[in-house]
Write a structure and sequence with these properties.
Helix content: over 70%
Strand content: under 5%
Structural class: mainly alpha
Largest sheet: 2 strands, antiparallel
Number of strands: 2
Order of helices and strands: HHHHHHEEH
Low-confidence stretches: 183-188
Radius of gyration: 23 Å
Number of helices: 7
Number of domains: 3
Strand order of the largest sheet: 1-2
Length: 188
């Protein structure tokens, strides 16, 4: 009787460990994603924030699939759920990082924090000249190969941003039922 009970308990503990691995798998993969990006940024292993974010995402995704392969069985349902959870966590992280890097409001507040005497509205407008900002953005996109110039015209170079934009529109359609809350993004 005790033999049977201990065997059942051992099987239950093994199943519980597998279930815990399945439950925490997307979270662990998300941690791999973040750690990979932190390592790449700290040790300057890649130029550009987008490349570090993509590499981190792909590393977490690889870890997710490897984790499922090494389990004793693979359930398609668990794979789909874990993939959705991991992608949602990564999506939120992507926007959290980009919000702090690119949002003008946050940048203006950080600038104001650096100056004890504050800045005048004219000084802020001079620093955040729309023409200069667009020109700088275009130059960064040309330098990274995201856009190219031919005969003084701009064209898509590496289509990664276009792919990301299309994925974001698709996620908006899935989540909120339309391309955007205010009707923008009509070109996709």
């Amino acid at each position: 009787m005790t033999y049977y009970l201990s065997k059942c308990l051992a099987e239950f503990e093994g199943a519980a460990l597998i279930n815990l691995a399945e439950i925490f798998s997307p979270i662990i993969c998300f941690i791999v994603n973040v750690l990979m990006q932190v390592v790449m940024c700290r040790y300057k292993l890649s130029k550009g924030m987008l490349k570090t974010e993509l590499t981190g995402f792909l590393s977490g995704l690889l870890f997710l699939f490897l984790n499922l392969i090494f389990q004793s069985y693979i359930s398609v349902y668990i794979l789909i759920v874990n993939l959705i959870i991991y992608t949602a966590l990564s999506y939120c992280y992507f926007h959290f990082i980009n919000l702090s890097v690119t949002a003008r409001r946050i940048r203006i507040v950080r600038e104001l924090y650096q100056y004890e005497n504050g800045l005048t509205k004219t000084e802020i407008l001079r620093k955040y000249n729309a023409k200069d900002m667009v020109e700088n953005r275009i130059n960064r996109m040309i330098n990274s190969g995201q856009i190219i110039t031919k005969n003084d015209r701009l064209y898509i170079g590496k289509p990664i941003l276009l792919l990301i934009a299309k994925i974001m529109v698709l996620l908006k359609i899935i989540i909120i039922g339309r391309k955007s809350i205010n009707g923008t993004n009509k070109q996709f």
